[in-house]
């Protein structure tokens, strides 16, 4: 892999020469890729060692984009660059993604943040709360395809909120502007990142996503891709789906399930995605508990509703973090108190979502006893 994995490089010096004093462009997202690249390299100039962080419990899009950004900084800015993540990499496909492509990523628990003088956030934003950059540090680089949070514009380089279906697409744009050929591993990672986040180019896809996908196709390895997409699955994977289906309730055009305790937070999103395949569904909500936190995942087919906005409006009073965009969103809320209090919180949240879905008066039917339409 092109990204250097050694931590024996030169220590940073804090606020070094590359940090810009003038305000960043208000909407860097709408500038040409070449202009973005120039701005990125200008911000990186004078720094020595970069740490690129994904969102916690990272998915392939976040991981691939982070590796590509680190590769770009090493090749074009002359920095040492490393990739870190918080939470866990739990889904079988995501574990295979890191293993098969030999991605040089490290858990934040093994990272000394004081060794770095340039920080980047990929597929997340500073004030979202779903990343592991310490509050005492500020991000210099923010790259995210999700809707813009105004605080992100405080970063010297903030490419956020553009017309992209995946953050990996944004990194392909940078690589092409830099005339930098990705390695087979990086190309395969970016390809799968786009493929996974846009559901095979079928969800919230833009022409730029399609163009990037086609550019990567001859550069990626189909055998590696197959190993990622079709990994062996642990027994607990099937046990979790047993719980998901057994506890799922159908409310007219909405389906809701409580996964109880999950072995990996990203399984909540996978289940929410799977339940949307049920005939006639416009809404899917899955939630599960992991290490005293409640993880929620929402999927929406009704184009009149924005999943990201809805989940923020419902969850903002409960602390934690939330985010997303048109058809998919997620939230992470802190849990405290006894079991009865936690159950009451779940009931309260479900009631609010059902009201928003317009199905609050629908009689719930167990998925296992639901009739086909």
From TrEMBL:
Residues 254-341 form the DHHA1 domain. It comes from Myxococcus xanthus. The lineage of its organism: Bacteria, Pseudomonadati, Myxococcota, Myxococcia, Myxococcales. This is Recombinase RecJ. Transmembrane segments: none annotated. Residues 50-194 form the DDH domain. One of its GO terms (molecular function) is nucleic acid binding. Residues 1-13 have a biased composition (Polar residues). InterPro entries: DDH_dom, DHH_sf, DHHA1_dom, Oligoribo/pAp-PDE_c-di-AMP_PDE.
């Amino acid at each position: 892999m092109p990204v250097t994995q050694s931590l024996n490089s030169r220590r940073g010096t804090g606020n070094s020469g590359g940090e810009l004093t003038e305000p960043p462009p208000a909407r860097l997202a709408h500038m040409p890729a070449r202009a973005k690249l120039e701005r990125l390299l200008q911000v990186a100039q004078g720094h020595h060692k970069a740490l690129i962080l994904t969102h916690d419990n990272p998915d392939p899009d976040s991981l691939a984009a982070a590796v590509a950004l680190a590769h770009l900084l090493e090749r074009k800015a002359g920095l040492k660059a490393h990739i870190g993540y918080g939470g866990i990499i739990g889904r079988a496909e995501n574990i295979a993604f890191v293993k098969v492509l030999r991605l040089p990523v490290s858990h934040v628990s093994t990272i000394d943040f004081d060794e770095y003088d340039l920080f980047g956030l990929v597929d997340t934003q500073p004030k979202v709360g779903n990343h592991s950059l310490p509050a005492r540090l500020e991000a210099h680089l923010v790259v995210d395809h999700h809707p813009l949070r105004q605080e992100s514009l405080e970063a010297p380089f903030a490419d956020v909120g553009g017309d992209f279906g995946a953050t990996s697409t944004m990194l392909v744009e940078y690589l092409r502007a830099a005339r930098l050929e990705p390695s087979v591993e990086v190309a395969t990672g970016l390809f799968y990142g786009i493929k996974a986040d846009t559901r095979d180019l079928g969800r919230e896809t833009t022409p730029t996503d399609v163009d990037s996908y086609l550019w990567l196709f001859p550069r990626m390895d189909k055998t590696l891709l197959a190993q990622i997409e079709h990994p062996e699955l642990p027994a607990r994977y099937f046990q979790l789906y047993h719980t998901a289906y057994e506890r799922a309730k159908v409310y007219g055009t909405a389906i809701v399930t409580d996964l109880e305790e999950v072995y990996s937070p990203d399984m909540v999103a996978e289940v929410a995605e799977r339940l949307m395949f049920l005939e006639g569904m416009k809404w899917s909500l899955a939630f599960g508990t992991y290490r005293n936190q409640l993880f929620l995942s929402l999927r929406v087919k009704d184009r009149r509703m924005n999943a990201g906005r809805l989940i923020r409006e419902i969850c903002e009073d409960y602390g934690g973090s939330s985010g997303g965009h048109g058809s998919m969103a997620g939230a992470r809320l802190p849990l405290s108190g006894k079991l009865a209090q936690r159950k009451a919180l779940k009931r309260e949240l479900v009631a609010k979502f059902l009201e928003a879905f317009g199905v609050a008066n629908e009689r719930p039917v167990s998925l296992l006893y639901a009739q086909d339409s």
